[in-house]
Design a protein that fits this description.
By secondary structure, this protein is of the alpha+beta class. It has helices at residues 21-30, 54-69, 80-88, 148-159, 169-179; strands at 2-8, 34-39, 44-49, 75-79, 102-107, 128-131, 135-139, 164-168. The protein has a 4-stranded antiparallel β-sheet with strand order 2-3-1-4, with helices on both faces. The protein has a 4-stranded antiparallel β-sheet with strand order 6-7-5-8. Helix 3 packs across helix 5. This is DUF1697 domain-containing protein.
């Protein structure tokens, strides 16, 4: 069995696209997954599965959510090893900043510098970003809420047709713990 995290995009925001976590746990269990747990109300679930296919698990979950709740929710499913690798590769001093100042955006496909080449990064300092393979690390000293860089990156990602969802560093590390990826 492999442990996974399901990252749901854009749910339970300002009362819209409600997916109660208890119902999400029931849905994942009904799909045959084990060890199902959720974290926070923002669309984070962990589960075990015999499947080794993240794309198939993602498609299955998206279909089930649409059938259950009546609206489409983009999801990303990542295994414990990947989550741990992303946390371990953080190019910023994670131990020296608050969790709300550091974020990871997970993408549905690999990204490279060309995706964001039109962005003049120096114009957004002291905010900074670095790319991983299917992840983007974002350091925002004043938090995400008023980040101009985060908004610019989101526009570029959507413009390139990428499915993306972000988590703050506290959630990143908690999902690693919950999936056993740090073991």
């Amino acid at each position: 069995m492999t442990m996974y995290a399901a990252l749901l995009r854009g749910i339970n925001v300002s009362g819209h696209r409600k997916v109660p976590m208890a119902e999400l746990r029931t849905l994942l269990t009904g799909l045959g997954h084990g060890d199902v747990r959720t974290y926070l109300q923002s669309g984070n679930a962990v589960f075990s599965s015999e499947s080794g296919d993240e794309d198939a698990l993602t498609a299955e979950l998206e279909r089930a959510i649409e059938e259950q709740f009546g609206f489409k929710v983009e999801c990303l499913v990542r295994d414990a090893a990947y989550l741990a690798a992303v946390a371990g590769a953080c190019p910023f001093p994670a131990a020296e900043v608050q969790g709300r100042q550091l974020h990871v955006t997970y993408f549905d496909q690999p990204v490279d510098a060309a995706h964001f080449a039109s962005l003049e990064a120096a114009a957004y300092l002291p905010e900074e970003f670095r790319l991983g393979d299917r992840a983007l690390y974002l350091h925002v000293p004043d938090a995400l809420g008023g980040s101009r860089l985060a908004a610019a990156l989101a526009r570029l990602a959507v413009g390139k047709g990428l499915v993306a969802t972000s988590r703050n560093w506290n959630t990143v590390t908690r999902l690693v713990e919950m999936t056993g990826g740090g073991a």
